[in-house]
Automatic annotation (TrEMBL):
SUPFAM superfamilies: Metallo-dependent phosphatases. InterPro entries: Calcineurin-like_PHP, Metallo-depent_PP-like, Metallophosphoesterase_sf, Pesterase_CT488. It holds the Pfam family Metallophos. This is Metallophosphoesterase.
């Protein structure tokens, strides 16, 4: 089984309470861990598209990553906009958390399912979009392409993990969706949206791709089944 849950926003230091987004966030870490243990088995896969921990440094993030490592299943992590702790693959892999796989210009294949991803970025039609944003946007498109091009074997399906919603402000698919179509992606999971932001969540089959918004509060802090086996 493949599950997905994004925006864990774990905080080992307890300095970043998330209940500013609503009372449903009270003890959200406990809710996530309890629901995870009830649903996920050791041979399952869990996709986590960003905003994993509030830590600013990898040495601090280790404590939250270790808690994730100790939960059932194999975990595939990609970067979110708040993951300032994210460093080189070597440094992250050297933590020795072998149930975690970090997506960074790479891919993961699970039972003939190819998984790639990147952080993404705000849409070009955002009123605050700048020239610097354009550089990041293009770089993130390139990283998504590189990730899927790293899949060298034939797979039955492809899943894209992206943190930012791959849609414009008017809800139309943006260039990330265009690239996913070019790459023959079947399923896309994304997060980033909280509280009032849920009104911008777009799900279902669009242009032949099945989209799931899996920010943790959007799915009631419970890992969502993305693909049964």
């Amino acid at each position: 089984m493949i599950y997905g849950i994004g925006d864990l926003h774990f905080d080992y230091s307890k300095e970043k309470p998330m209940d500013i987004f609503g009372d449903n966030w009270i003890d959200h870490e406990g809710q996530i861990i309890e629901n995870w243990k009830e649903k996920v088995k050791e041979d399952d896969l869990v996709l986590i598209p960003g905003d994993i921990t509030w830590a600013l440094k990898l040495s601090q993030a280790y404590y939250d990553l270790k808690r994730i490592h100790e939960l059932p299943g194999k975990k595939i992590l990609s970067k979110g906009n708040h993951d300032y702790w994210w460093e080189s693959l070597k440094k992250m892999n050297d933590l020795g958390l072998d149930s975690i796989f970090f997506i960074q210009n790479l891919s993961y294949v699970h039972n003939n399912i190819g998984i790639g991803g990147t952080r993404g970025w705000i849409s070009r039609d955002n009123d605050n979009f700048t020239d610097d944003d354009e550089k990041i946007f293009k770089r993130e498109l390139l990283r998504l392409r590189m990730s899927f091009h790293s899949i060298k074997e034939k797979v039955d399906k492809k899943i894209a993990m992206i943190h930012y919603p791959p849609f414009n402000m008017n809800s139309s698919p943006n260039e990330f969706v265009d690239l996913m179509k070019e790459l023959d992606v079947d399923i896309c999971v994304y997060g980033h949206l909280h509280a009032e932001g849920h009104k911008y969540a777009i799900e279902g089959n669009i242009d032949g791709i099945e989209f799931h918004c899996i920010s943790s509060d959007h799915i009631n802090f419970e890992p969502k089944i993305i693909l049964g086996e």
